Amino acid sequence: MNHDSHNETATGPNGTSGAAAGAALRPVLSVQPDQPYAFIRGSVRMDNFGLIADRLGELIGWLSAQGAEFAGAPFFRFNTVDMDGESDVEAGVPVVAAPAPEGDIQTGALPAGRYATVRHTGHPDQLFDVITALRTWADEEGLTWDMTPLEGGAERWGCRLESYLTDPSVEPDMDKWEIELSFRLADTD
Prior knowledge:
Elements: E1 7-10, E2 16-17, H1 21-24, E3 28-32, E4 35-45, H2 50-53, H3 56-66, E5 75-78, E6 80-81, E7 86-94, E8 105-110, E9 113-121, H4 127-141, E10 147-149, E11 155-157, E12 160-164, E13 178-184
Parallel strand pairs: 2-9
Antiparallel strand pairs: 1-3, 3-9, 4-7, 4-8, 5-7, 5-12, 6-11, 9-13, 10-11, 12-13
Protein backbone atom coordinates (compact mmCIF):
# COMPACT_ATOMS: atom_id res chain seq x y z
CA MET A 1 0.00 0.00 0.00
CA ASN A 2 1.22 3.47 -0.75
CA HIS A 3 1.08 5.23 2.59
CA ASP A 4 2.28 8.54 1.21
CA SER A 5 -1.05 9.19 -0.52
CA HIS A 6 -4.39 10.09 1.04
CA ASN A 7 -2.71 11.40 4.19
CA GLU A 8 -5.35 12.19 6.80
CA THR A 9 -3.33 13.34 9.81
CA ALA A 10 0.24 13.11 10.89
CA THR A 11 1.76 13.35 14.33
CA GLY A 12 5.19 14.30 13.02
CA PRO A 13 7.97 12.90 10.86
CA ASN A 14 7.63 9.17 10.39
CA GLY A 15 10.33 6.90 11.74
CA THR A 16 11.82 4.94 14.60
CA SER A 17 15.13 3.35 15.25
CA GLY A 18 16.36 0.56 17.46
CA ALA A 19 16.09 0.87 21.23
CA ALA A 20 14.56 4.34 21.02
CA ALA A 21 11.49 3.01 19.21
CA GLY A 22 9.02 4.07 21.90
CA ALA A 23 10.45 7.57 22.29
CA ALA A 24 10.71 8.23 18.54
CA LEU A 25 7.38 6.66 17.51
CA ARG A 26 5.57 9.02 15.16
CA PRO A 27 2.76 7.13 13.42
CA VAL A 28 0.93 8.53 10.43
CA LEU A 29 -2.79 8.01 9.94
CA SER A 30 -3.90 7.60 6.34
CA VAL A 31 -6.86 6.44 4.29
CA GLN A 32 -5.91 3.77 1.78
CA PRO A 33 -7.82 2.34 -1.20
CA ASP A 34 -8.08 -1.40 -1.94
CA GLN A 35 -4.71 -2.72 -3.18
CA PRO A 36 -4.43 -5.82 -5.42
CA TYR A 37 -1.75 -8.28 -4.32
CA ALA A 38 -0.46 -11.81 -4.77
CA PHE A 39 0.45 -14.00 -1.82
CA ILE A 40 1.42 -17.36 -0.41
CA ARG A 41 -0.33 -18.21 2.86
CA GLY A 42 1.06 -20.37 5.64
CA SER A 43 0.49 -21.29 9.25
CA VAL A 44 3.71 -20.76 11.20
CA ARG A 45 5.06 -20.41 14.69
CA MET A 46 6.95 -17.18 15.33
CA ASP A 47 10.08 -19.19 16.20
CA ASN A 48 9.91 -20.81 12.74
CA PHE A 49 8.89 -17.74 10.70
CA GLY A 50 11.42 -18.56 7.98
CA LEU A 51 9.00 -21.17 6.60
CA ILE A 52 6.83 -18.35 5.21
CA ALA A 53 9.50 -15.63 4.93
CA ASP A 54 11.61 -17.77 2.62
CA ARG A 55 8.71 -17.98 0.15
CA LEU A 56 8.89 -14.27 -0.76
CA GLY A 57 11.65 -14.91 -3.32
CA GLU A 58 9.56 -17.61 -4.98
CA LEU A 59 6.55 -15.28 -5.14
CA ILE A 60 8.58 -12.38 -6.58
CA GLY A 61 10.09 -14.70 -9.19
CA TRP A 62 6.66 -16.03 -10.18
CA LEU A 63 5.19 -12.51 -10.46
CA SER A 64 8.14 -11.41 -12.59
CA ALA A 65 7.63 -14.42 -14.90
CA GLN A 66 3.95 -13.44 -15.23
CA GLY A 67 4.94 -9.89 -16.23
CA ALA A 68 3.19 -8.42 -13.19
CA GLU A 69 3.94 -4.80 -12.33
CA PHE A 70 4.83 -4.33 -8.65
CA ALA A 71 3.00 -1.60 -6.74
CA GLY A 72 5.09 -1.52 -3.57
CA ALA A 73 7.38 -3.41 -1.24
CA PRO A 74 6.98 -7.08 -0.30
CA PHE A 75 5.26 -7.66 3.01
CA PHE A 76 3.92 -10.11 5.53
CA ARG A 77 0.21 -9.90 6.29
CA PHE A 78 -0.70 -11.26 9.70
CA ASN A 79 -4.28 -12.58 9.54
CA THR A 80 -3.92 -14.08 12.99
CA VAL A 81 -1.21 -13.55 15.56
CA ASP A 82 -0.53 -16.13 18.25
CA MET A 83 2.83 -15.57 19.92
CA ASP A 84 2.65 -18.99 21.60
CA GLY A 85 1.12 -21.02 18.76
CA GLU A 86 0.46 -21.01 15.02
CA SER A 87 -0.16 -17.69 13.23
CA ASP A 88 -1.89 -17.39 9.83
CA VAL A 89 0.55 -15.30 7.75
CA GLU A 90 0.79 -14.34 4.09
CA ALA A 91 4.01 -13.51 2.24
CA GLY A 92 2.72 -10.93 -0.25
CA VAL A 93 3.56 -8.41 -2.92
CA PRO A 94 1.31 -5.51 -3.98
CA VAL A 95 0.71 -5.40 -7.74
CA VAL A 96 -0.95 -3.02 -10.21
CA ALA A 97 -3.18 -5.87 -11.46
CA ALA A 98 -3.19 -9.37 -10.02
CA PRO A 99 -2.46 -12.23 -12.44
CA ALA A 100 -4.50 -15.44 -12.32
CA PRO A 101 -3.64 -17.54 -9.25
CA GLU A 102 -1.57 -20.69 -9.70
CA GLY A 103 -0.87 -23.54 -7.27
CA ASP A 104 -0.49 -22.15 -3.76
CA ILE A 105 -0.02 -18.60 -5.08
CA GLN A 106 -3.26 -16.70 -4.52
CA THR A 107 -4.45 -13.20 -5.31
CA GLY A 108 -6.72 -10.76 -3.55
CA ALA A 109 -7.02 -7.17 -2.42
CA LEU A 110 -5.78 -5.57 0.77
CA PRO A 111 -8.82 -3.82 2.27
CA ALA A 112 -9.41 -0.09 1.99
CA GLY A 113 -9.65 1.88 5.21
CA ARG A 114 -7.82 3.95 7.78
CA TYR A 115 -4.36 2.73 8.72
CA ALA A 116 -1.81 3.69 11.35
CA THR A 117 1.67 3.42 9.88
CA VAL A 118 5.14 3.72 11.34
CA ARG A 119 8.60 3.08 9.92
CA HIS A 120 11.42 1.36 11.76
CA THR A 121 15.07 1.32 10.77
CA GLY A 122 16.86 -1.65 12.27
CA HIS A 123 16.83 -5.40 12.66
CA PRO A 124 13.43 -7.14 12.34
CA ASP A 125 14.05 -8.68 15.79
CA GLN A 126 13.41 -5.18 17.22
CA LEU A 127 9.86 -5.03 15.83
CA PHE A 128 8.22 -6.40 18.98
CA ASP A 129 9.12 -3.19 20.85
CA VAL A 130 7.93 -1.03 17.94
CA ILE A 131 4.61 -2.90 17.76
CA THR A 132 4.16 -2.54 21.52
CA ALA A 133 4.82 1.21 21.26
CA LEU A 134 2.42 1.55 18.30
CA ARG A 135 -0.34 -0.22 20.22
CA THR A 136 0.28 1.95 23.29
CA TRP A 137 0.17 5.08 21.13
CA ALA A 138 -3.19 3.98 19.62
CA ASP A 139 -4.62 3.38 23.11
CA GLU A 140 -3.49 6.85 24.20
CA GLU A 141 -5.06 8.39 21.06
CA GLY A 142 -8.35 6.51 21.63
CA LEU A 143 -8.00 4.53 18.39
CA THR A 144 -9.36 1.02 17.93
CA TRP A 145 -7.71 -1.61 15.75
CA ASP A 146 -9.55 -3.74 13.19
CA MET A 147 -8.75 -6.73 15.41
CA THR A 148 -10.73 -9.37 17.28
CA PRO A 149 -9.24 -11.11 20.33
CA LEU A 150 -9.33 -14.92 20.13
CA GLU A 151 -9.02 -17.60 22.79
CA GLY A 152 -5.66 -18.01 24.47
CA GLY A 153 -4.44 -14.48 23.72
CA ALA A 154 -4.36 -14.85 19.92
CA GLU A 155 -5.74 -12.08 17.67
CA ARG A 156 -7.50 -11.98 14.27
CA TRP A 157 -6.62 -8.85 12.26
CA GLY A 158 -8.54 -7.18 9.41
CA CYS A 159 -5.21 -6.08 7.95
CA ARG A 160 -1.85 -5.97 9.73
CA LEU A 161 1.15 -5.50 7.43
CA GLU A 162 4.91 -5.62 7.89
CA SER A 163 6.48 -4.25 4.67
CA TYR A 164 10.18 -4.58 3.87
CA LEU A 165 11.28 -1.40 2.11
CA THR A 166 14.96 -2.40 1.93
CA ASP A 167 16.11 -4.83 -0.75
CA PRO A 168 18.32 -7.38 1.07
CA SER A 169 20.36 -7.95 -2.10
CA VAL A 170 21.34 -4.26 -1.99
CA GLU A 171 21.67 -3.94 1.82
CA PRO A 172 22.43 -7.30 3.49
CA ASP A 173 22.98 -5.71 6.95
CA MET A 174 19.62 -6.31 8.67
CA ASP A 175 20.45 -3.59 11.24
CA LYS A 176 20.06 -1.06 8.39
CA TRP A 177 16.77 -2.33 6.99
CA GLU A 178 13.76 -0.04 6.77
CA ILE A 179 10.50 -1.76 7.71
CA GLU A 180 7.03 -0.23 7.63
CA LEU A 181 4.28 -1.42 9.96
CA SER A 182 0.75 -0.62 8.81
CA PHE A 183 -2.24 -1.69 10.91
CA ARG A 184 -5.85 -1.12 9.83
CA LEU A 185 -8.09 0.75 12.25
CA ALA A 186 -11.68 -0.26 12.98
CA ASP A 187 -14.35 1.64 11.10
CA THR A 188 -15.72 4.35 13.35
CA ASP A 189 -18.51 5.67 11.12
